[in-house]
Amino acid sequence: MTDKVHLGHRARKRFGQNFLNDDMIIDKIVTAIDPKPTDNLVEIGPGLGAITEPVVDLSGQLTVVELDKDLAERLIHHPFMGPKLTVHQGDAMKFDFSSLIKSDEKLKIFGNLPYNVSTPLLFHLFEFADHVEHMHFMLQKEVVKRMVAGPDSKAFGRLSVMTQYYCHAMPVIDVPPECFKPAPKVDSAVIRLIPKKPEQRTAKSTKILNTVCLEAFNQRRKTLRNSLSNLLTSEEMEQLGIDASKRAENLSLAQFIDIANWIYDNKQ
Ligand code: SAM
């Protein structure tokens, strides 16, 4: 077997295919997900089924969303897993996850995500936070670091603010490159995301919160006075108790929300 062919499938770079190939790591991921027969489980990018198989063994059923037509076909016709899977062949970034809600059972979503699209995919998933119990994702370790970073650090950015706005986030497993086939060039990590309750998410408009983050972090070396000048004046920042001579990375999540709500109330 060459590096690129795994279980008879040639890994497609454009789909971010790096297949898990380490039983101990797979075991740890499955333990973190803790699948039960009553769970409403969804896997993004099941690929060749490295996580799918042990999860379906425990849960008996599973919905999967896979972009690669060949891999989706393989899963549909898989002798053991096939009958237990509901396979959606398509792009998870366009998938309406709320369509999978049955009665009151919230979704438990997991996946070893394609690294080339992980950030937009996470932003898409955050939109379904109210329908989700928890999520477990394998990502580039650097992305996980950014998601959990706090203020006053270089890793703190829009992804940190928006992740922590929607979810409680905690890294659970570190995964080195040699656990995949083909091995990626970067370290990986699994993150657990538990959506916050709607009453904990106090932004009046998440669109405005996102815009504030974009403006502030696009010019992260600049002071807030300059980077946010299109949105509010330094006097208006002072009224919110925010020092306009600080930079975006010095603001807390609560302060980002305060700015967004001020704009919602005063500039709409
Ligand atoms: N879960 C498998 C594993 O751990 O071995 C495969 C993980 S691989 C890193 C990413 C998987 O996501 C591939 O199967 C790839 O085809 C699929 N994929 C890539 N882009 C996708 C998208 N936009 N929507 C759904 N699946 C996607």
Structural features, described:
The structure is a single chain. The protein is an alpha/beta fold and 268 residues long. It has 2 domains: 4-199, Rossmann fold, CATH 3.40.50.150; 206-266, Helicase, Ruva Protein, domain 3. It is built from 10 helices and 11 strands. The chain has helices at 23-33, 52-59, 69-76, 118-126, 141-148, 158-166, 206-218, 224-227, 234-239, 253-267; strands at residues 5-6, 9-10, 19-20, 40-44, 62-66, 85-89, 107-112, 132-140, 167-175, 180-181, 188-195. The strands form 3 sheets. Strands 6-5-4-7-8-11-9 form a 7-stranded mixed β-sheet, with helices on both faces. Helix 4 packs parallel to helix 6 (158-166), helix 5 (141-148) packs across helix 6 (158-166) and helix 7 crosses helix 10. Bound molecules: S-adenosylmethionine. S-adenosylmethionine (SAM) binds at residues 15-20, 44-48, 50-51, 65-68, 71, 91-93, 112, 114, 117. S-adenosylmethionine is lined by residues 15-20, 44-48, 50-51, 65-68, 71, 91-93, 112, 114, 117.
Summarize the structure.
The protein has 268 residues and is an alpha/beta fold. It is 34% helix and 21% strand.
- Unique bound compounds: S-adenosylmethionine
Low-confidence stretches: none
Strand content: 15-25%
- Helix fraction bin: 25-40%
Domain Ribosomal RNA adenine methylase transferase N-terminal: 25-197
Function: Specifically dimethylates two adjacent adenosines (A1518 and A1519) in the loop of a conserved hairpin near the 3'-end of 16S rRNA in the 30S particle. May play a critical role in biogenesis of 30S subunits.
Main location: cytoplasm
EC number: 2.1.1.182
